[in-house]
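ugh finaly. both done.
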Amino acid sequence: MKSLAVYFTLCAFLVLTSCKKDKKLTTEAQVITNISFGDDPAQKMDAYLPEGRNEQTPVVVMLHGGGFVAGDKADVSARAQQLSAQGFVVLNVNYRLVNIDGVLSNPIVHKPSPVKIADQLNDIQAAVNLAAAKSSEWRMSSDKWAVAGHSAGATLALLYAYGDKNTGGRVKVAANWAGATNFAFQDESEVKLLDPRIVEVIYRAVGAEPVQANILAYMAASPMWLGIQGKALATINIRPEFNNVGDLPDGSKTEYDKFTQILTEKGVTNKRVEVAGADHGFSKAGNWDLVINETSAFFKARLQ
């Protein structure tokens, strides 16, 4: 009888020890790369799972820039690592790109793109849905989610957070790193002042000719106008002092001033950060550290 008791005690000890080891293994830091969430080769994401995570660990969806037509998740992998090191699960998401064949031709080839901003938002939704279904497996929160992006990725982040693709309101806070907030125009004369190549890219991204009859399509692709409609949620806007893209003029200060005013008037929690001396890519030493630290603090305060 005594030997039987010792046997069961030993078995119980082994089971408990095994459970503890398994638990430890599941919470070690891990990076899972190139997770497919669709049939297109571009529809892949990397998941950065921090050490010590649990079912309350918040999740950040990260989106690269590239003017809707270029870029890759590799461009922001260092930022994903930085945020993950601060205790977030980070989903670094690729999305299909707007086609620009013929944009640089002379004359410019005017044609639609098979992929538009609406399709890119569908890609983000597909990535979110796949990851959400793995909340238990990856040991992360199912509802404490944020989205962040740089440049065009920031525009997509805001459009996703504010729009109807954010089903169930899973994403509760957004970060805009140097992104555009408004593509709408007052009248067609404004469009004629722009570089024709830019007009063509925006036409392909939006999927509608830039004429007055289609102004609603351009508003729908503009986070600022979703904010005016009362659809915005908690947002941190981080703008570099010199937010020029290539040789294009920088009108973002006025745009960010207006966007901040709209969010504030609508009662939306928001923060505006200006990074002195920074360029559009936040390429100077210490710029990205500031961006990540400000974003992390803002997210944590709203995802408790």
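ok and the 2nd:
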Amino acid sequence: MDSPDADGLLAEQLLRLTRRVHRIQKHHLETRGLGITPAQSRLLRTLAHYGSPPRMADLAERLEVVPRAVTTLVDALEASGKVRRVPDPTNRRVIRIELTEDGGRALRELHSARRAAAEDILAPLTDEQRAVLGGLLDTLVDGTSVPADSASVPAGGADAARGPERD
């Protein structure tokens, strides 16, 4: 697929798949009744990756959004009891964002919703096709070349081919 038309078709397919993934994830979120938007879900998942409560500026940088966007998300999540603002122990001017117990429960539900959405989307694929897709997606995400033998399913199956979950 070297022609510009083929590349345009691939780009359109990727965009359609992305929209489908978002629709299915949103549906799974809504059916669980968590009252969490996809953007709030992303913030909670990002927050869970920190070893200690981050500053809002740290979250904004990691999410690649403006700090004001994080403030709006945190306000809503704090109002629903999923996160809380806590003072920095070493600098009283700094506020950090901490996941609450309810936020941890919501995060587990979110993970389950994402897994269910992935199962829906990947259902038509065989294990070998999933492994190949995982390798190709890693290449696109990382911007590196796929080794020639990556089309085979590793000993750990399709999940091993994909590696750790990313946002």
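summary for the 2nd one i guess: Residues 150-167 have pLDDT under 50 and may be disordered.
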